[in-house]
Amino acid sequence: MYRYDEFDHAFVAARVSQFTDQVERRMSGEISEDAFKPLRLMNGVYLQLHAYMLRVAVPYGTLDSRQMRKLAHIARTYDRGYGHFTTRQNIQYNWPKLSDIPAILKELAEVEMHAIQTSGNCIRNVTADHFAGAAADEVADPRPYAEILRQWSSVHPEFSFLPRKFKIAVIASEHDRAAIQTHDIGLQLKKDDQGRFGFAVWIGGGQGRTPLLAKKIKDFLPEADMLSYVTAIVRVYNLHGRRDNKYKARIKILVHETGVEELTREIDAEWAHIKDGELKLPQADIAAINAYFAPPELGDRAEGWGELAAWKKSDPGFAEWVGRNVAPHRHPDYAMVTISLKPIGGIPGDASADQMDAVARLAEEFGHDEIRVTHEQNLVLPHVALADLEPLYRALLADGLATANVGLITDIIACPGLDYCALANARSIPVAQEISNRFGDSARQADIGDLKIKISGCINACGHHHVGHIGILGVEKKGEELYQISLGGSADENSSIGQITGRGFGPDQITDAIETIVDTYLAHRSSADEPFIACYRRIGADPFKAALYSSEAEAA
Amino acid sequence: MKTAPTKTKVLTANRLTDGISVWLGANGEWTTSLKDAFLARHEDAVAAIETAGQQALDDNRVVDVNVIEIEETASGPRPYRLRERIRADGPTIDYAPDFTASVSQAA
Amino acid sequence: MTVIWTQGGIVENDPWISHGAEDAPKLLPLAEALEHAQDNAPFGVALQPADDVRALAPILDRVAIIALTFPAFSDGRAFSQGMLLRERLGYQGEMRAIGTVLLDQVPLMLRTGFDSFEVDHAPTIKRLVEKRLPGIDLHYQPAADQTDAGASYNWRRTAILNG
């Protein structure tokens, strides 16, 4: 993974000094709260219902054990002993004091971490496939490009006051594991028939009040042109994105209102001026960044095959965990392990400081010291020998990290919601917990199969409900919480925005409504091999609506 | 002619230094306990708390000042809005079960 | 109190300052400036964020000063306008930031080609006069300012500090 050089260390230290000075000026009143707000947001500091919230960047979801230990230490020392992993591969702390944040940032800088631009109307954390560097289907590791974009976008003087936030995601396979079509810019690394690297480029995806999927505007952008092309896109957006209405300010609206062909013409016209200028990426620089991402030495561990088979046979719990949480690696003796942060009835994406330390230890012992955060709020050890799966499982079990539910109905994605967030209209966590408890039985879950439930507590859609197979949006109606259901969303290469079923459901009815939907699916599926999303796409919304609303007594 | 009684109000904000939810108390100090909030039942009282709120903002002690409506119940003031009840009572879920809070009273 | 500040310090008797002397030349909005360009008198232009800076191309050599507006500090369009004026149009004259000019945006403005600033926020004026800007001298991207490229990655720059 990337290692800071002197320049990076000096930069992050300067950034900490800069923010420390800004905090002092805020405390003394030299800066008003209005003027301070964008500055603190660009350092990841939100004001929530009960306290500040600090969002620490985990660039493209990658960290090592040293960094994970530091995150645990921060949780213990400055917060309430836990953290929350987010749908953009970052981590959030819910109780830091503003007066402590300079110290926290200093500690993060010691392990090459920061909270730069994790909020604000600027370019945010560049996310990537959480299986990068290990997946068999990638053309190459996409993360070096994410790292180049991360550097280039840091304190970019032209792009620090955009109309709204700007999110970029990078993948390197046909199978999209980073939801690029829901991003402002999505990049898919490809190889042309001469083996040269380039990107398919999508723009204008985004959720929130007006969910829209990105449109592909380039089939193959040579890798050397990545920075200049992204500059052209963001410059056109900065100049022409709407500034009159917060809910119409993302580039997706600009694409929608201008038309993708016309907007692409404007972008290409701007690009023509700069493409051969100082932003052109030299091969040597790409190669240098690439070198940081060289895969670890994965020695042959062929004994794992036999051992795995034997363990699975003797331990059904282990077998179940392997079936759900373990995916094949590029190297046949290895696997990619997902650590579920969705215990039955638990808070999705939360991890205690002790659990973070445990993951750090296990990454060192079994995982070649590499950890990933997924946009579905789980963790990954991407390089684990098959021969080490069983001892890893035992250790995870002891720490409550071995729930065998990846991709199943209890692997719920939920934003913090009204329990924490000042923007929320309704709670999301208790809904997630109730659904998880209702469907907690492992046999039942296995029977239901792949089913992604995503829950947001407000229209800002941080829970990505628009792209859930089942999406739940919490709203406030007449002072009470109400939950709208949408069906058929998806965030992979076949992305789709979910369709609202109809009237919403109160907190006492929502779990029953989910059960009704699941039962409808089970009754209509063509076989146990037809997953929910395929069934929905085949039969449409009507059978589900009929089941949900057949009893007219259920007035919302 | 009957007019609807005005709802009792309290002033709430978040402390600048640590972001903790606070309410304006009877003695003009900020308290972390809603129970100790000053209850503004009349126009004059509401005007007074609004003024105090603006002053506290200007003094850089608090941010995000709001006048909110509460119901006076036997067990103390109860905000009408769920959001404000959650601000007063904390998250409704069992987060960080190992944590023991030590929260000071003064703003 | 409104001042004009440059990296050389406060500018006394600046002719283009807002609310300046009655008979002082005024900054013209774009449409007027394009008309006025026929005359030989020096003139200045004040652009709004929605103006297309490229419209100035034919009259650039006759402009005495270009001011770009930050109506609120959150409106960052003038940063792109500044970049285009410097890099695309090759404008080398004075480029001024007007509107809401606050300390923490000044380093970004300096990087995007601004060289003078109209400021009325007292704490900002104080820090500018003390030359204590909250900028970071290491840059991860080229911009319109003069910087050192150094031996590192192509996109990195370092501020050239005066002595």
In short:
The complex is a heterotrimer of chains A (556), B (107) and C (163). Chain A is α+β, with helices and mostly antiparallel strands.
Report on this structure.
- The complex is a heterotrimer of chains A (556), B (107) and C (163).
- Chain A starts with 5 loop residues before the first helix and ends in a 7-residue tail after the last helix.
- The radius of gyration of chain A is 23 Å and the shape is globular.
- In chain A, helix 1 packs antiparallel against helix 4 (101-110).
- Helices cover 37% and strands 16% of the residues of chain A.
- Chain A is built from 18 helices and 20 strands.
- Chain A has helices at residues 6-27, 33-41, 65-78, 101-110, 143-153, 226-240, 251-258, 260-274, 283-292, 303-314, 316-325, 353-366, 389-398, 429-438, 442-448, 510-524, 532-539, 542-549; strands at residues 45-47, 52-56, 62-63, 82-85, 91-93, 127-128, 168-171, 185-191, 197-203, 215-222, 326-328, 334-339, 350-352, 371-373, 379-385, 413-414, 453-456, 470-477, 480-487, 499-500.
- A 5-stranded antiparallel beta sheet of chain A has the order 1-2-5-4-13. Chain A has a 5-stranded antiparallel beta sheet with strand order 3-14-15-12-11.
- Chain A is an alpha+beta fold.
- Chain B has 107 residues and is α+β, with helices and mostly antiparallel strands.
- In chain B, strands 3-2-1-4-5 form a 5-stranded antiparallel beta sheet, sandwiched between helices.
- In chain B, a hairpin with a 5-residue loop joins strand 1 and strand 2.
- The termini of chain B are far apart.
- Chain C has 163 residues and is an alpha/beta fold.
- Chain C has a single domain (3-134), classed as TIM Barrel (Alpha-Beta Barrel), CATH 3.20.20.
- Chain C is built from 4 helices and 10 strands; from the N terminus they run βββαββαβαβαβββ.
- Chain C has helices spanning 30-36, 77-88, 106-111, 122-129, and strands spanning 3-6, 9-10, 27-28, 43-47, 63-70, 94-99, 116-119, 138-139, 147-148, 157-159.
- A 7-stranded mixed beta sheet of chain C has the order 2-1-7-6-5-4-3. A 3-stranded antiparallel beta sheet of chain C has the order 8-10-9, with no helix packed on it.
- The longest helix of chain C is centred in the middle third of the chain and has 12 residues, at 77-88.
- The mean pLDDT of chain C is 93.
- Classes of the chains: A alpha+beta (556), B alpha+beta (107), C alpha/beta (163).
